[in-house]
Design goal:
Distance between the termini: 37 Å
Number of strands: 18
Number of helices: 18
Strand order of the largest sheet: 1-10-9-6-2-3
Radius of gyration: 21 Å
Helix content: 25-40%
Shape: globular
Largest sheet: 6 strands, mixed
Strand content: 15-25%
Length: 430
Amino acid sequence: MTYPIHTVDTTNGISDQQLTVLLDEFIKQKAANAKRILILPPDITRFYSKAGFISAYLYEKLKDQAEIYFLPALGTHDPMSDAEIDVMFGKKIPKSLFIPHKWRTDVKKLGEVSSARINELSEGKLDYSMDVAVNKLVDEGNWDLIVSVGQIVPHEVIGMANYTKNILVGTGGSDTIHKSHFLGAVYGMERIMGRTSTPVRKALNEGYDQYLSHLPIEFILTVLGKKENKLALQGVFCGAEEETYVEACKLSQKLNLSLLAKPIKKAIVYLEPSEFKTTWLGNKAIYRTRMAMADAGELIILAPALHRFGEDMEIDALIRQYGYRTTDETLQAVKADKQLANNLSAAAHLIHGTSDNRFNITYCPGDGVSRAEIESVNYQYCHYDDMVKKYPIETLQNGWNTMPDGEEIFYVSNPALGLWSTESGFNGTN
């Protein structure tokens, strides 16, 4: 088998046994002599990516020949709990091998993207430089091999998730995270989501190519899509160059982008309790469906495990202070508030979480967040238990459903797994 490894099977899917054959070939070509290995998997929010299976398999096959550590690409997310590690990677890997990434402190700057380049990429709207930085362990660990594992799927900040983002945002620092997110928000998420090449992608790729090319980084990228209403692995892409990312994106656009013939008047989106506990993550329900929502439509978000807004407590406080107002109001707040200006990823998140009053958003948490809290950030409220009586999720299929009273709704069982738009909406923003 030649390298890079690009394997696609959209007819039958790729079984776990077939995946291990591909991983054995990856080990043969890239890890046969490695003595120190760092694995960069996603956290529990990408549970369905197969990254846990892949990381655990690499550990099992290589643990007798190499020192292996795991640095989950957390970005601003909470460190993984022992229970989450067990669910994601199994119970055979010692917890001491998992190192939490601390995005505010454990970072080393390697270079920067110039202000002139950011100005060009933002079409003249921004004039700051942006750090190119990673967790110190990535650069100073004297690794023989660094394996970045993750899923290619549409993303609101960069267009398509993973590849260099897993390194420079997932193990990156506050400057890169804040400014990359704000660049995406100012450029416009509807011009970005589902696209392979975007201003944020260009900035990260250029920084990665200029300052991280000395590191022995290999990527294992997965692409999953529904088969017979179940999620199935359909693509595995192993390589170190951009062509591996581009090929994975082509498959993800085919499998994860749903272009609808008509806009959605009412959408019901379910947030899996193990995956979505904050609006920071749960607002995927908003931006992954916004290009499909009809004007004056209604988006209902079923969020049984919601317990706060931000993953990071400083950002949580800013969300509570400003709420999800319109884009123009948030941009004005950035100019007026130094604290918000110093937390541009929070400002970007506020922009991502607004409908700009174009459609209505009702959040339906369990008991973890109160009506007053939800309404204070400018969302409508209904308790989860009350809403699921009207829309019992066990009776719904992904896509269009007709309820017993004749109401037509559109159901999404996991917004992290796709992007929904009207065909005219997606193509009209090219």
